[in-house]
Amino acid sequence: MKKVMNTPETYVRDELEGLVLAYPHILRLDPKWNNVYRKHKKAPDKVALVSGGGSGHEPLHAGFVGYGMLDGACAGHVFTSPTVPQVHAAIKEVATEAGVLVVIKNYAGDVMNFKAAAEMAKKEGIKTEYVIVNDDVAVPEPEKRRGTDITILVHKIAGAAAEEGRSLEEVKKVAEKVIANGRRFGFTLTPCIVPQVGKPTFELAEDEMELGIGIHGEKGVERRKIMTSREIAEYSVNKILEDLKLGPNDEVFLIVNDQGSLPPSELFIFYRDVRKVLEEKGVKVWHSWVGRFITSLEMHGGSVAILRVDEELKRYILFPALVPANLPFNMPPYASV
Amino acid sequence: MKKVMNTPETYVRDELEGLVLAYPHILRLDPKWNNVYRKHKKAPDKVALVSGGGSGHEPLHAGFVGYGMLDGACAGHVFTSPTVPQVHAAIKEVATEAGVLVVIKNYAGDVMNFKAAAEMAKKEGIKTEYVIVNDDVAVPEPEKRRGTDITILVHKIAGAAAEEGRSLEEVKKVAEKVIANGRRFGFTLTPCIVPQVGKPTFELAEDEMELGIGIHGEKGVERRKIMTSREIAEYSVNKILEDLKLGPNDEVFLIVNDQGSLPPSELFIFYRDVRKVLEEKGVKVWHSWVGRFITSLEMHGGSVAILRVDEELKRYILFPALVPANLPFNMPPYASV
Questions:
Q1: Other residues' Cβ atoms within 10 Å of the Cβ of residue A181
Q2: Based on the domain organization, do A242 and A208 belong to the same domain?
Q3: Contacts A29 to B, Cβ<8 Å
Q4: Are B148 and B246 within one domain?
């Protein structure tokens, strides 16, 4: 197994320690639970945002903790949900009088544990609401759809609304707007290796790829001979446009994401082709992000996420976000000589 | 060959088009030469910075074009130097009355072509100087050392000095200070595949790794059974500290870099171990960057770069940099609702 690590057992703790060492001015780690919180004290009148899930999706979730996005992130073992007491500890830690919004990705373990923790907190008198992200169009039935890339936009947009002082009900409402208007489709040329398992999650021939993958190293919904970037772009965009019923003159926000080990050159080739396909269809790209935001360990794949936008969503997408995943040079944007 | 691309022939052009499509407010592409420039007009009294080299090292160099860093970047074919006329065109395009500093990585082809282009420009009356980066401690003889990660800090620091209005002589002097005080060491667990070649740059068994790699898919200087992250950190840091004669109470800036396909989890595990080793040696880490800055296509490896800092260098490291590689959310830091 080719990994830069010490032991499978210390994998998650070691990476969280590294992240917090790199961003000590933004993050702190609760070593009892592997929960990551904002370094600075919470504002009592701000709605707090908690999310999390299995590890192996970095920078999601801890890389999105900080001003403008999350207040707390729970890291489970690789591809394994955090426990109920762990999530409960996070909700209690970040809770304010304004309440807590829990952002859950639609996976059985996450939904069960995060909902149970939210119910516990509610019974203890903490104002708690939750939303469930189910954006992966590879799965036909909406209620079974996995929670993937759009989760980041829920963190971004609901996080900005919370920062602006909106109520728990309002923050939840804007999160639900993101979920209703956002979809994602993913593909990969390789499987990945879970550290504690030590072998690939599936077998794939040298000339094959998978379309319609999730984020846990699972196979896609269709196996094909390796397609060109342009063909993958067309396939992925079509899946999303059909589902969101998007067409000429609709305005969207676009994320083109590296699933773990797609080098920047290939990522920007793919982005170019996604843009060309959208242009040909007359869909207007208002703004976009291209980068490594949600991963499946070292998968050589990518994903496309599209959000139908309105003025409120645009405003919150452009709200500042002082989070590790948005600070490669690790300095506040106002830094100056 | 597992790559998300269209054809090997269009690989570089496609990725440059994607980059410029993603950052149209910062970049423009000269399609005749595959040169990338700042979108906005140059200030006549600012020293201009030009760099470039073979492609396959993204985000280097075009990802560092923008306010606070480069004015122009020349992209050659993968792992192949840009041509003399191409570099000459870039120097002419960005030249100002204050002059042009050309930043060259120490590789035979780059040195030959960039120097020849600089001489041509000089003869035409453009004030032109150059510096050569040779920071890779894997090579014992300093004059043969390859130019790698420290190149980014030359872009960053000389770019900030230029932005501040310093003269060509002063900007060159600070670039030379960076080169004199910066070193790098790299490793990999896998080779990579050049698109136009279609097979791995070398063979490596499932339990083996290479220490002391460059950035062109070449073998390292030593082959080993896969070491732990902590062992690699110790080996890499020792090489640099010995060479820079760094010890207790010396203050440094640190980059821990993903060589292409090291997932963020492994990158932060490795960063943690590098920090621990430096702490044990008493070397004081003033500030650090952790990310994907200079790559060898899809190599599963990493590198450590260390710069001995003084107040001038620190000031310029914290100078703003509005460049694609520093803007994952693709918005100016002053964006606000």
A1: 20
A2: yes
A3: none
A4: no
The residues of chain A scoring below 70 in pLDDT are 332-337
Residue A122 lies in a domain: yes
**Digit-coded pLDDT (tens) for A250-299:** 999 999 999 999 999 999 999 999 999 999 999 999 999 999 999 999 99
B216 annotated active-site: yes
Catalytic residue at B287?
no
Q: For B290, which of A22, A189, A293 is closest by C-beta distance? A: A22
Low-confidence ranges of chain B (pLDDT < 70): 332-337
Residue B331 gets the label, from left (phi > 0), alpha (psi -120 to 50) or beta, of beta
Closest CA to A114 of A161, A149, A81, A70: A81
Report whether B3 contacts B195 (CB < 8 A): yes
A58 vs B11, B263, B337: nearest CB = B263
Q: Does A206 touch chain B (CB under 8 A)?
A: yes
Residue A323 near residue A68 (C-beta atoms within 8 A): yes
Q: Hey, what are B41's tokens?
A: 């007009």
CATH of the domain at A274: 3.30.1180.20
Q: CA of A125 to nearest chain B CA: how many angstroms apart?
A: 33
**What pLDDT, in 10s, does the model give residues B19-59?**
999 999 999 999 999 999 999 887 889 999 999 999 999 99
- Helix/strand/coil (H, E, C) string of chain B? CCCCCCCHHHHHHHHHHHHHHHCCCCEEEECCCCEEEECCCCCCCCCEEEEEEEECCCCCCHHHECECCECEEEEEEECCCCCHHHHHHHHHHHCCCCCEEEEEECCHHHHHHHHHHHHHHHHCCCCEEEEEECCECCCCCHHHCCCCCHHHHHHHHHHHHHHCCCCHHHHHHHHHHHHHHEEEEEEECCCCECCCCCCECCCCCCCEEEECCCCCCCCCCEEEECCCHHHHHHHHHHHHHHHHCCCCCCEEEEEEEECECCCHHHHHHHHHHHHHHHHHCCCEEEEEEEECCCCCCCECEEEEEEEECCHHHHHHHCCCCECHHHCCCCCCCCCCC
Q: Average pLDDT over chain A, rounded to whole? A: 96
Q: Would the CB atoms of A333 and B331 count as touching at under 8 Å?
A: no
Return the structure tokens found at A163.
């920062």
Q: Does A320 touch chain B (CB under 8 A)?
A: yes
Residue B270 domain boundaries: 182-317
Pair (B207, B196) in one structural domain:
yes
- For residues B108 and B168, membership in a common domain is answered with yes
Peptide bond just before B61 cis, omega within 30 deg? yes
- Would you call B277 an interface residue with chain A, using a CB distance cutoff of 8 Å? no
As a whole number of angstroms, the distance between CA B150 and CA B294 comes to 10
Q: Which residue of A has its CA nearest to B286?
A: A22
| Whether residue A212 sits in one domain with residue A110 | no
B46 and B160 both lie in a single domain: yes
Residue B268 inside a domain? The answer is yes
* Nearest alpha-carbon partner for B151 in B191, B116, B93, B107: B107
- Which of B61, B88, B155, B216 is the catalytic position? B216
Distances (CA, A) of B247 to A200, B150, B278: 42, 20, 9
Residue B282 tokens, joined: 């008493």
Q: Looking at the structure, tell me whether residues B195 and B273 fall in a common domain.
A: yes
